[in-house]
Amino acid sequence: MSAIKKEIKRVTTHVLQAMKARGEKISMLTAYDYSMATILDEAGVDILLVGDSASNVMAGHETTLPITLDQMIYHAQSVVRAVKRALVVVDLPFGSYQGNSRVALESAIRIMKESGAHAVKLEGGSEIEESIKRILSAGVPVMGHLGLTPQSIYKFGTYKVRAREQEEAQKLKEDSKLLEEIGCFAIVLEKIPAVLTKEVSKNLTIPTIGIGGGKHADGQVLVVHDMLGITKEFQPRFLRRYLELFDMIKGAAQQYIADVKSGDFPNETEQY
What number is the average pLDDT over the span 171-186? Predict the structure, then answer.
């Protein structure tokens, strides 16, 4: 008798809603390629975000703005091929949805059809309401993103904590309710005061995912290159490094170079 394979339960937007309802925290990490996505999916992460942060950590750009829709689709395709369990969410890149809801819909449809991803993420509140509505009308799940929105970095002029002042905090609260009401299944809250994250999370029925928003969000997300210590310069307060892979990989490469130079690699057992 052949062994019965254990069924792998897919994470869906419905599953995330149920997790919030029972108080189970949601884990989310970024992924941009097949190999890393395979590892993270097997580890049991709930959501894999194909983030426009690929512009920084994969392509070396200073901001997220240069990455294109075609490039996001390429990264998403690579991640989707690896995934058996996690929900795959893809960032709509800068210029692919702002100001034109028809373009937003076309961008979202391309991502869903060409990559096989499960949802898209957009930055902003009331100013992109029509784009979100149009995407949702096509049956595409949407994750919102409020607080620090990196695609608007030149508008803000800084990566400092957002919504410290009452007016901006009030707008964020109103935008979070708007995103819930029009149908977003979750909202990322980036770099806002923990007390505001707590209030917003309590007042929403959909999950919140924090990054630099404190422990009261319904889940947390980090850029995987930051979490693993592959990046060196980026050291915000909210980042916990679980490994220091930059130094470990550099050390391994240096040892390999030394072994090749000395003639130690390959040895007698490493040849045919």
Answer: 98
